[in-house]
Input
Amino acid sequence: MQLTGAQIVVRLLERQGITTVTGIPGGAALPLYDAFAQGDIIRHVLARHEQGAGFIAQGMARTTGRAAVCMSSSGPGATNLITAIADAKLDSIPLVCITAQVPLSMIGTDAFQEVDTIGLSMPVTKHSYLVHEARDLLRIIPEAFRIAESGRPGPVWIDIPKDVQQQLVEFDELPGPGAPAAPPELDMAALARAADMINNAKSPVLYLGGGRLASGASAQAVMLAEQAGLPTTMTLMALGCMPTDHPLSLGMLGMHGARYTNFILAEADLLIVLGARFDDRAIGKTELFCPDAGVIHIDIDVAEIGKIRRAQVAMHADVGQAIDALLPMLKVQLREPWLARMRELRNAHPLQMPGKDDPRTHYGLIAAVAEALDDDAIITTDVGQHQMWVAQAYPLRRPRQWLTSGGLGTMGFGMPAAIGAALAEPERTVVCFTGDGSLKMNIQEMATLADEGANVKIVLMNNQSLGMVHQQQDMFYKRRLFAVDYKRRTDFVRIAQGFGLDAVDLDTSDNPRGALHDALRRRGPCLIHCSTDADAKVFPMVPPGAANTEMIGG
Ligand SMILES: Cc1ncc(C[n+]2csc(CCOP(=O)(O)OP(=O)(O)O)c2C)c(N)n1
Output
């Protein structure tokens, strides 16, 4: 068989089961794009900015759990992708990012649109390749998918010079698709010690992180909690793994967790930490986080074990497999005194949601959206106050329902990620909660959304401000509000309409709840605009550097 490097890429992506890629072409990528033009299996979604393409791919990957593909040309196309790739790295999202490079002979000459893509990619990827020979693509493409999806998932970058894309290769047969490597062997002795600790604990708490839990292992995690009587808290990334309204759910811990959640954690004598990395936003001041609790830590990434907190039992393992092996060793326990204490703290320090019944307040808007939808909906957010309010208040009930930028906290994530989610699961309604600052960061993707007609509802909480920064200046910098409030009001409704989207303004509606419900139920893209108060605060809040039990407000 004889194919060019570009044709090999397309054929191997097809074999990998890829049906949608997203990106923006350019001079160095023309052979690659021409090879896509000649295939009829893979659809290309034309983004309006490469960062948008990176987040669209993330939306697909976060929804399906499988690696998704984004692409760009050389130079500025590649640099524009970096933020989305760094975001995927921090949140362990499997991506394969394919960029074009100037021809091999011109690398190092400051050629037009040449940038050291590999050098730039290294700190923000799991692995990256500069392809020197088209033949190497036969190995590299399946390997990239294997690396992206094995162990702790993450992004892999493949940079392909233009002449390598054009080079003809003779070979017998295309390789099969890359598959994730088998997880490490379970350490049964360590599991037996973990079971012993759980069986003998008086006040244990299950602490779930994003990781693989977001997919297969969440059902097992709920079984573990129910069998061993474990109140369960989740990081921002893990929300949805246990339904919010499950009697054992403590909701989100940390900086904007409910008071009762952080208070219960402070009384724990054992933490069972699964697929979580003791992130500072989750644990507050490290030395003061559950100082008296023993720790069982199970993680697929060996580098996380002991990184922040020493564990009495530490295991490098697939969380789902570890739970399966642990369950037969655990006693069925009701733990009535401990669960009674949990209920007592919850009743004494519940999450306060002022305005919950008024759809023109932040909590009220979130509640009204939830009331109009069922659990099939997918929820994405941008970054800021709105993100934390949604994390606190939206009744998330299933894994992969919740897509948010946790580790990097990237404004501009929400809308393109929602497009990707809707492309991956077109029958679902996808809601992107956003702020006016974040929406502007990738607002050009409204054009992509209109092209695709995807079922995405953008719910904009417009406070004319970079609300989360406004809050911190107000609370911790003596109300010296600087560079956070926008002077001119942007007419988002007309902008959305200009891009070809439907738009609804709850500010001017006589019946905002009805208008919201209608907009959410109509298929197709829509902007739902609502003005909110720039002085509203996300409470409770753990001040930066303080212990979780020193939270303010709420
Ligand atoms: C790309 C990027 N730049 C800057 C920040 C810092 N930052 C965090 S939250 C925030 C304000 C977000 O404003 P908005 O999207 O309007 O949401 P709000 O907080 O008002 O709900 C800023 C500037 C960031 N997270 N990401």
